[in-house]
Specification:
Length: 97
């Protein structure tokens, strides 16, 4: 089983709480809305999943996006195909500004 979704949105603090489920693994996350809203995240997740399911060897699901012109990092799950499995790796992408 796989799912990624938002649980609730905190409008005052400009962030949402979400959850990713991969088999029996479950993890909550916080997504900033300083650069992307929930719809932008959902669109990127759909594109990332579609890429890996359509045969690409790797992809990513961004879950904490900031303006790359001023941000120090972005958080995402990188996805890699290995044989008949998809490996998820929680990663911090360090940006060089």
């Amino acid at each position: 089983m796989f799912a990624i979704y938002f649980l609730k949105e905190e409008l005052k603090s400009k962030k949402s709480y979400g959850e990713i489920i991969i088999g029996t693994f479950k993890e909550k996350f916080i997504a900033s809305h300083s650069f992307w809203n929930q719809e932008k995240y959902k669109k990127q997740w759909n594109q990332g999943i579609t890429r890996i399911l359509n045969g690409e060897s790797s992809s990513a699901l961004v879950y904490d996006m900031y303006n790359p012109k001023v941000a120090n990092f972005i958080r995402w799950w990188t996805l890699y195909k290995k044989y008949d499995r998809i490996i998820f790796h929680d990663t911090i992408l360090m940006l060089d500004n």
